[in-house]
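Technical annex B. To support the medicinal chemistry partners, we prepared a structural model of the target in complex with adenosine-5'-diphosphate, based solely on the information shown next.
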Amino acid sequence: MGKDKVSEEYGSLLFTDAVMQERLPKPTYKELRQVIDDGAPLDLDIANEVAHAMKEWALEKGATHFAHWFQPLTGITSEKHDSFLTPKGDGTVLMSFSGKELVQGEPDASSFPSGGLRATFEARGYTAWDPTSPAFIKDEVLCIPTAFISYTGEALDKKTPLLRSQVALETQAKRVLALFGREPKRVYTTIGPEQEYFLIKESDFEKRPDLIYCGRTLFGCEPVKGQELEEHYFGAIRPTVNEFMKEVDDELWKLGVPAKTKHNEVAPSQHELAPIFEQGSLAVDDNLLTMEKLKLMATRHGLACLEHEKPFEYVNGSGKHNNWSICADGRNLLEPGAKPSENLQFLVFLAALVAAVDEHADLLRMSVASAGNDHRLGANEAPPAIISVFLGDELDAIVDALINKEEPEDHASERMDLGVPALPDVLRDNTDRNRTSPFAFTGNKFEFRMCGSQQNLSDPNVVLNTAVAEQCDRFATKLEGKTGDEFTTLALRWVRHTLRDHHRVIFEGNGYSDEWEAEAERRGLPNLKSTPDTLPCIIAPETVAFYGKYHVLNEAELHARYVSKAEQYAKLLNIEANTMVYMARHLYLPALFDYSGDIATSVATKAEIGIESPVEKELVRTLTDGISAIHAATADLEANSAAARELSDPLEQCRAYHDSVLPSMEHLRGCVDAMEKVCGEDYWPVPTYNQMLFWV
Ligand code: ADP
Ligand code: MG
């Protein structure tokens, strides 16, 4: 797309505010804005008018269907398409779309995981329009972003708790801001998700059942070259990939997704796409759209896009950095201000964040736990499984000084009145990045780096929003009624005490080092290494009380998430185990029979004419031993996986998959990979790491 075309087409498939303003009668538009901005209730007459305008707009853009677009507990998006067609009874049709159809849908989506919230006989959940996220057109379908709720009002999706957590944060942050004499209309989070992914040839992808069924390779010996030369990072982009990226940008821009930067990542064939940040839940929706487009567009270029956290052993996996900040009417609250009072306000939010992360480190860790992400976290390529906060030298010095009631060394002269330290400007372009930290302050926002590349970002943001809301609540409750110098003194004391009490979570060193693990243990920080380890905290009484207090998730909803997260983990590992057994029996063993058989034949033939062939003989022996090992390991995996499948308690089952099935998988992989190293390439039944990662 050329420059002019871009600005012309940007958001052309999005039912934007401008489109609404243009197409709706003024009073209707005004009322709708109130619904969107202030959460006012929606009147059916208004809904009818909006639906009509939306339909007319969508028909002009070539849409024939509409769909309620929602995010069940699987995390990915779902949609059921309904056409606008309404037969008139005389053989002709009308294109219609009512307010009721806009506002509420009944997908009869009884097969989605609900963690027991709905027994299937009363399966109906309904989808409810989320007017804060604009409708868009995708493949001739008008997509309406919705929340997915049971008839008893329980959240069956990822979006509803996110919206609730945003309300909680807004409410509590406004109380804090009021104490600083500010009354913003809206307080909201901003999120910028950096999406990593791999691109390989579709023809290679199609030959690997593990990639097709599981999204990651379950076998494959180390490639001759990995990422050690680091030439891929920010390197020149292959023409095919460049074409693909351009098309993705074009598509995303039409949908109003502000895709901004794209570059090659560290691992071979790994890339990243980062958008300009947007308001919280909208950014999450747009990230989901981005993931969908990446996958879809890739196939148009003969490529396959892998969004799994660990598609390949031996090179880095993929994450999704969740850049997070909090904003009041366009003013970033994590940006230190010019005036001392603004600095105090900044310090209050900073302290709130540090405390929030420390107090709910287990939930934060849980929110990014998955079978896929377990391969990354703690594996010297991604942050460890231990949650800590990195502030950077400047801010760290200020925090230390505050706690110790000293003046920061270099900034003594800059100390302003009322005991509030002046925050240096350098904070704003803080480039002192610590890449090993899971939660890093990067100048005017925090970057949560533990998220997995294929995950729905709602989960971590629900934790963050609610945890910060809780701290804001505490601050406001303590300080309400105080004014003037007394307020300043007490507020600063709150900052000081909060930072002191949660100082253990601040860590500026190398998060990848073994020393940190030991040090973190001394500090009493949780180190939840795998998904099963993180499950219990979802239903802990403290969690129920915490989410209950801010009306984000009730006990039944939490229990549902516990069950569904466990189920998803177990089911995924079961599929991986099945795939390995299948590949071993139907691909690898037959290939090894062929190869060893051919060499054995050649040994026998040579012997007939009196030629000894010790090397070939030895190889046949190695291959035969390998075949036996693979055979035994396959049977072992099958048995362990069958045993795990039988267990009924969700946690016990996950532990069995983790403790017994995963090691069996690793063992089988070892046996097969050892044979890959000695087997002739023409015989090997699937593309190798060398081929997949370094395609031309
Ligand atoms: P890096 O790779 O160095 O982390 P990128 O430019 O790739 O930097 O990504 C930074 C991300 O942070 C972008 O998506 C950007 O929009 C986002 N971001 C910047 N400011 C904020 C903010 N105030 N709130 C949330 N996200 C932000
Ligand atoms: Mg980043």
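Notes passed to the chemistry partners:
DSSP finds 22 helices and 18 strands in the chain.
Residues 336 and 423 are 7 Å apart (CA to CA).
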